[in-house]
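Feature request, filed as a ticket because there's no other form

It would be nice if the structure record came with a short human-readable summary line next to the tokens. Right now we just get the raw output. Example of a typical job, pasted below so the devs can see what we mean:
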Amino acid sequence: MKTNASPARKWPLEIKRGNVTVKIYRGKNRVNGTAYDQFTVVYYDGAQRKKKRFADLEEAKREAAFVGTKLANGENEVLRLTPSDRALYVQSVDLLRPLGVPLNVATLEYVSALKGLPEGATLKEAVDFFRKRNPASLEKRSVRQVVDEMLAAKRAAKLSQVHIKDLESRLGRFAGDFQLNIGGLSGRMLQAWLDGMEASGRTKRNYLMQIAALFRFAVKRKYLPKDAIEEVEAVQQAKEDNGEPEIFTPAEMREMLAAARPQMIPFLSIGGFAGLRSAELVRLDWSDVNLRERYIEIKAAKAKTGARRLAPITDNLFAWLEPHAKEAGAVIRFESWWNQIPKLVDAVNEQRKKQAEEAGKKPEPVRKFQWKHNALRHSFCSYRLAATKNAAQVALEAGNSPQMIFANYRQLVTEAEAAKWFAVCPPKAAENIVPLGATANG
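Raw output as currently delivered:
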């Protein structure tokens, strides 16, 4: 019978790797009465004796050499793999050998990269995207660098300080959250970032608009290819919020003004009775407040829209401002108005508790006062529209469009409620206040 082994060969064969010896024994395997050569690889994995049988001697030698190498290197776990897993292991090592990267390092980097990708994305997609967005001809710039360059360009173009401040705030936050090359930003990453933002739909849309402007700027500066803007355009825009704007009642406004520290009186009264935005208020100077002519000038550089406008000083607002007015200087002197709000809320609730105790009521059932977001401005627009019945006039005074005023503030309050709102004034001035009519000065 023909065999693969030479008759002169000495058995068992010994394959040595370092201080490890793996033996190959020759035997017979009988199938249907016919005897075939069989070669058994024998080695020890710890205290356990292992055997693997082969019909081909060369295959047995390869296995013995592999086992000996792994045992000598202390890689016993590899020997416990199934044949299919062993084949995958060998294939992986062979693929990595030209790169000089160990299998464990390659696996670690792969897992780390995959965890950083959006759900459903593959590593190959990320690499293809990177190669597409980072050709050798493009200059490399981080998001922060591009934001800084864009802001410098806007300042050189002498855009309004309000617009620049808004860009600094929004794009500054964006750059802080994406500390990477701008070419590495994808639509999926932008979508996930916006979806995870705790903000109104309108705020998210504003962020996306400015990010799109940043991408267009980067394209012009040759930091991104022209098709990069498609990544922004693919982001699904958040829906506009449809809830009605919250407003304060005349009683709540009276409570706030009664409980507020003197420094807060101009902030509350101008916001509620002239409709200035919080950002416009903190930039306001007493030289912009004309009590004699009964108007407040919001200069273009201080207006959110970048357009100059005049806000009315109604009779009750005049009464609140007159004791605090100066020739010049900041109207709002505290550093952060939002830090003052919790103090105001506490003061109003303490005032309510005290009034309830004086009236002989238990303090527990007293309804708690709560601050309402942007409600001073919303209140002015709502009550002013009810009093004047003129959306175009209110739009000019508030620095908004007539369509926005009409869509958001009509039918929220009655004319009688508007009269009560613009009759909120200091106690000593109450007798001199005439209910607000339809004129610009009230």
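Something like this underneath would help us a lot:
Residues 13-100 form one domain.
Strands lie at 13-17, 20-31, 34-45, 48-54, 289-290, 295-298, 309-312.
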